[in-house]
Specification:
Shape: globular
Number of helices: 11
CATH architecture of the largest domain: 3-Layer(aba) Sandwich
Strand content: 15-25%
Number of strands: 9
Length: 256
Amino acid sequence: MSVKNNPIGVIDSGVGGISVLKEAVKQLPYENFIYYGDSKNAPYGIKSVDEVRNLTFNVVEKLLKLNIKALVVACNTATSAAIDELREKYKNIPVIGIEPALKPAVELKRRGKIIIMATPMTLSEVKFKNLMEKYEKDSEIVKLPCPGLVELIEDGIVEGEKMQEYLRNKFKDYEKDDIAAFVLGCTHYPFVKKEIASIARDVPIIDGSQGTVMQLKRKLDKYDILNIGSEKGKIKIMNSLKDDKILDLSHRLLDL
């Protein structure tokens, strides 16, 4: 059996990476995917780098036993903490990470602040500092740590008064400012895009899933393992919580 038929592994600290999986299924309809959410240990964003690195490697080892042909780390925090080490250790498969989509936000050339919403760990890591340094000459970039937001989404709260209250509280310091764009620096956050848009009217909201999947496509092509069959691929969703509720939420968010 050809390696091309082997699944692509997509991992995250919980249900957030489903936003990347969704984009991947759209762009790569003939690929098979295995998604693994580590909700038992979520959120990663408030843990130490070493903890996140260890958790990430544990999940990857599980997926390698299922013969994945490529790995997508669909978690900004895990990418910040472990992507270089993963690429170093697993040289035989393409390993794709995700980072906040600052470049497209800067390229909009809109007046005002670019607000990066992300977990505390993503914003404090060297990888993000380097990314910021690349663009802060051109734009005013504001870091907005969002502790607690991942937990709300993991509980299935993606709309309604509780979410609105959380977001209004986060944005209150910027009500009078010109905002050029919001950048969603965590794969959980696209699921509350509608709620963000309802508060931050007419401000572009950008996430990195499209760019990540385009990079995945390029790598599959480069390794000559792109599946261009005619049969729609299969999707398997796994979660460390082993709880039907979290699996139901995952399928609901995938919304196929």
